[in-house]
Amino acid sequence: CNPATPGMFDNNDHLGYAAWTSDGEHWEGPHSLEGTYGHYIWRAGTYGGKAYLCGRRVRDFAPTDGDEGKKAVMESAMLESEDGLVWRFCGLFQEEKGNETAFIFEDDGSILAVARSRGENAMLCKAKPPYKDWTRTPLNHNVGGPLLTKWGKHYLVGGRKIPFGDTAKTVLSWLVGDKLEDMVELPSGGDTSYPGFIALSDSKALLSYYSSHEGSNSKLAPCSIYLAELRLG
């Protein structure tokens, strides 16, 4: 937020920033990210000496009126960088209704991605280098603020799930083919999602997420950030 002009900003006015540390104690930044102006940035990955980033943006950065008009022309762009500070366009995760997209690189450089689609089921997106030709397949339920990672030999997906007629929960699922098989529902509710994951072994892991179920239990503050220990039987 710009303190000179406080308030809500349009997507076309977004700008990404980075902060970094070499020892976990002394930090540098925040530093503005060249090439991210007009992008709502989300999730990063690395492969072959380059960094990659998802940036949600309005097609051609055109001015839009209202959320519905904006949703129809949203893209999810894939940006690439040599240093993590200067970014350029590389491809499109989603050409329509673009939203937050989690992605991982396979050993051969191909990308596997799970893309949020507001009000609809999430999309499974795949591409090989140079990431110009994509296949996009609807999954069997919605995933808000998605996480996608490999845990041992399995693909793990996490995020907000809103069952029909129910309240939101943060749910972890196995990705099996093009289907999500729900594994565990975390203590959560209200405004919840955005999981982060660290594997400690093939059977133990740590997962962070936020939730308002012990606060407002709604989209209003307060929320809390939780740390869960995961164990596979």
Task: Quickly list its features.
1 helix, 233 residues, mainly beta, 4-stranded antiparallel beta sheet, 51% strand
Question: How would you describe the overall organization of this protein?
Answer:
This protein has 233 residues and is mainly β. The chain has 1 helix and 17 strands. The strands form 5 sheets. It has a 4-stranded antiparallel β-sheet with strand order 3-4-5-6. The protein has a 4-stranded antiparallel β-sheet with strand order 7-8-9-10, with no helix packed on it. The chain has a 4-stranded antiparallel β-sheet with strand order 11-12-13-14, with no helix packed on it. Strand 7 and strand 8 form a beta hairpin. The longest helix has 7 residues. The model has no long low-confidence stretch (mean pLDDT 92).
